[in-house]
Design a protein that fits this description.
Four copies of one chain form a homotetramer. Chain A has about 140 residues and is of the alpha+beta class. Chain A contains three helices and six strands, in the order ααββαββββ. Helices cover about 25% and strands about 45% of the residues of chain A. Chain A has a six-stranded antiparallel β-sheet with strand order 1-2-4-5-6-3. At the A-D interface, β6 of A face β6 of D.
């Protein structure tokens, strides 16, 4: 495991929300990160779908850590803003959020993310994100 | 309590995520809804701030229920998309999300939301949302 | 006219697009700027409404210059991103875009804007923007 | 030329703004549309780059017409909202906006767009859009 993978793994485990949601970091590549979340009865909105805020939490993290893979060692990432479209009901056995870096600047990194719901053999995109991450010197 | 207040109260309590987060519905007015969340050690990102996804969850709900107050009785609200700017670190004893309807159409309702962090006597805006809600006939 | 008003006036006139559109800078206050555009047959989309890109051009400028009023003298403003909702058809005799600073940071300034269409005595909000401006040292 | 290509061609030419900007419709495929714009001294912001509103105008159109290729014959497309990130200075000899449909619903179509600047043999992405289009029955 590379240094950046170790660092993102440690950062992910330092996020208490990820444990609360039951999310797992499943892939860290250069400029692309994936996070998986099983369906849970404790994370729903009123119609029984996964809540938009939960979907947003995992794809925000996927985008943020994807951005971090492109930043200088020691820098920290903070979300400046994101926009998410919810394109299908969030129903499935598990959900995988993928974040990818589109452009990495000295100060701002722009990412795109998507969340796919898996049920048995079928999969469907349920959400699309476009996000701006800030590179913070610490 | 009016019919729409009762309906939003019931819908809010049907959202398992709100119980998981510890959020409370504190105000339902015509076109404006407020939700409160105490700080919790289980909802944080890696720097110890409230996670962006948690902030988003409560302000999305505040916007969605604000939209619902303007819809015909019996209709349901679904989030089409939102955009959130995170303008200060999410630190505080408690957080209040306010969602307001800007324009209500037959099919789409546009809302703006903000989240304010309170610590003792001080308060600061930490996030701003602009959202599109869909009016779903059920 | 203050130094910042003069500077914004000069910058506005250096934008060839504003002359092409026929836009006028009508107000520069601390943290709030207004730009006016008369309806024009040369700026329309296929249904005869003002094009979304034209509406966006004037409210982006209103937000950008509002941000500039909060930046240190000599700094330049660049748009990092914006999100615009189009809430009514862009019909009217003239359009006024207002941009307001919500929070001004050292690096990023978050603004909200709106565009109002005027026809005789009536006025209607037609668009809402939320934007992130970058403070560039020059 | 197919019926949808003819219809989009006609709609594009009915947009007076496209003639004012000097934009050309260069490709209409199922779910993907491209629009080209040469650099012009009349479309600039204060630093001599193409104005963000101009970039937005062409990528909004590319996304809107891409959405239209997926709608029932006779329907009309209207932009509900879009979000655009400006990732590099808009400098180049010509600019190509591409809009692609991500998901097409009965009522809403979600698209992603990008704008690439070309100078001689080099090309660079300068802007990324995520947009929500409404399917209007006429």
């Amino acid at each position: 495991m590379s240094q950046i993978q170790q660092r993102i793994e440690a950062s992910f485990h330092a996020q208490s929300l990820m444990a609360t949601l039951g999310a797992r970091l499943i892939s860290v590549l250069d400029g692309e990160v994936q996070i998986e979340l099983p369906f849970s009865e404790t994370l729903l909105q009123q119609q029984g779908y996964l809540h938009a805020g939960v979907i947003t939490s995992i794809v925000d993290n996927a985008c943020g850590y994807a951005a971090l893979t492109k930043m200088p060692a020691g820098d920290e990432v903070v979300t400046a803003e994101f926009k998410t479209n919810f394109v299908r009901p969030a129903l499935g056995e598990r959900f995988v959020a993928t974040g990818k870096v589109e452009t990495a600047g000295r100060m701002l990194t722009v990412c795109r993310g998507e969340v796919v719901a898996f049920t048995g053999e079928t999969s469907k995109v349920i959400a699309l994100m476009q996000a701006t991450m800030v590179n913070v010197k610490v």
